[in-house]
Write a structure and sequence with these properties.
Number of strands: 37
Oligomer: single chain
Number of helices: 2
Number of domains: 2
Strand order of the largest sheet: 7-8-34-33-32-31
Strand content: over 45%
Length: 444
């Protein structure tokens, strides 16, 4: 994707490395460019120089792809021209179909009454909703427009049949959308939010602990970019009840009611934050957030050769934490790496294993489900790891589906997020340049 001013191509956006601090290129004409997949702490006045705040600049979308409907098996290492192993393509919807320029985060919802599964696809200009009752023929039901301006960052989570959406777009706040409104729809709609929380301006990410009914917004202008605690037990009436500001900027987080091996924290609500100040301070921060009025630090996990602590996820037994650093591949030239920490003793975590892939793509968002770890690995697409023998330090790749077939270089192209939690086994992949892919493990 190129940034165009008049007839002059200023820069190829996907070649910009802006992960340590967001790169701001100020032209004498006052044009300001900002492009990144993660954002470090910024001063409030810097929010005004985001790309979406420059209406005189046109973004040209060079993609002209056709949708794919119907099963395309992975055979001889390819499915419809996409490299693959043990995962078949069910369908593909290009960005043009959404009338959008870029995709970012995605999530999923299963209607408890009908059992129909839906994909919530984050886009630069809003959130798209798709029924995948028939994943080989998904139905685009419509879009909830952005709350303020377009942005390349959007993040979505679900609780009590409502979607909670944040964005880096200036003054976006948090949109709340009642997903039950999707029931019975067969034609495209333009949706409106059911609630809009504006206590914060923009934010990079949101995580939800469904067991406690609290959302944790991170990377906002509140609490130095640390987590903001929001009570969403009444989804249409979210309330900020506190936050934590003493551990630097939080980029992403997972929050659980802890049920792991450390007896000292059984039943506590613990926050596992991927924190970075954009420089040398890269760490995983474990907080006890049971008491929202008095959150306490349990432990900070530091590690060597860090570039940008991006995102991590616990194994289901809460014994291990799998961490992705988004800049180590570029800075140190290593293959795609996943750091695995043994957190059996939360007060004394230990590096258990560094897993290295066979490619050098940058890792982005990863999630565990049972004995598998599903990773969005940018230019290498979806990578799925077998972690069934993680205790014996044995991790291996089970399969992949590469949505960016051009290369596996350590750059910011390709798969932003994957959603692996549908009971049907369908995996939704949001590709930045291309759109939405639905895949499923090949049948034996």
């Amino acid at each position: 994707m190129e940034l165009i001013f008049g007839n002059v191509s200023l820069i190829n956006l996907k070649k910009v490395n802006m992960k340590v601090m967001p790169l701001v290129l100020k032209m004498v004409t006052g044009i300001v460019l900002l492009m990144s997949c993660s954002k470090s702490v910024m001063e409030e006045n810097e929010d005004e120089v985001l790309l979406e705040d420059s209406p005189e600049i046109d973004i040209i979308n060079p993609l002209e792809k056709e949708s794919i409907n119907g099963l395309v098996p992975c055979e001889d290492g390819f499915a419809a021209g996409y490299p693959c192993s043990n995962f078949d393509l069910l369908s593909y919807i290009p960005l043009e179909y959404f009338e959008s320029f870029e995709a970012n985060d995605n999530w999923g919802w299963t209607d408890p009454e009908t059992g129909i599964e839906y994909v919530l696809s984050g886009l630069n200009d809003g959130t798209a909703f798709l029924s995948i009752e028939d994943p080989e023929n998904p139905i685009f039901l419509g879009k909830l427009p952005t709350a303020s301006k377009p942005s390349i960052w959007r993040d979505i989570k679900v609780y009590k049949n409502h979607a909670f959406i944040v964005s880096e777009a200036q003054d976006h706040g948090m949109q709340v959308f009642d997903l039950t409104k999707l029931r019975g729809l067969t034609s495209r709609q333009t949706f409106t939010a059911d609630a809009h929380l504006t206590d914060f301006k923009n934010a990079h990410n949101i995580s939800i602990n469904e067991d406690s009914g609290f959302a944790y917004v991170v990377g906002s202008n509140l609490y130095e970019g640390g987590p903001v605690f929001i009570d969403i037990n009444d989804p249409k009436n979210p309330m900020v009840v506190g936050g934590y500001a003493d551990a630097s900027y939080t980029h992403d987080a997972q929050i659980v009611n802890y049920n792991g091996p450390d007896e000292n924290y059984k039943g506590k609500e613990l926050f596992f934050g991927s924190n970075s100040d954009g420089g040398a301070n890269n760490q995983v921060v474990i907080l006890d957030v049971t008491n929202k009025e008095n959150p306490t630090l349990v432990k900070s996990i530091n590690y060597d050769n860090g570039g940008y602590t991006h995102q991590g996820y616990l194994t289901e037994d809460h014994r291990y934490f799998l961490l992705g650093d988004e800049l180590d591949e570029q800075i140190f030239g290593s293959p795609t790496s996943t750091r695995i920490f043994d957190i059996t003793d939360l007060s004394d975590p230990k590096l258990h294993l560094n897993y290295y892939s066979t490619v050098q793509a940058i890792d982005h968002n990863g999630y565990t489900k049972g004995d598998l770890f599903y990773l969005a690995s940018y230019s290498a697409g979806l990578r799925v790891l077998d972690i069934s023998a993680i205790g014996e330090k044995q991790v291996s790749e089970k399969g992949f589906f590469d949505t960016y077939p051009s290369d596996n270089n350590p750059e910011f192209n390709g798969a932003w997020n994957v959603y692996p939690f549908f009971e049907s086994g369908v995996i939704a992949i949001n590709d930045i340049e291309s759109g939405l892919f639905l895949v499923r493990a090949s049948q034996d």
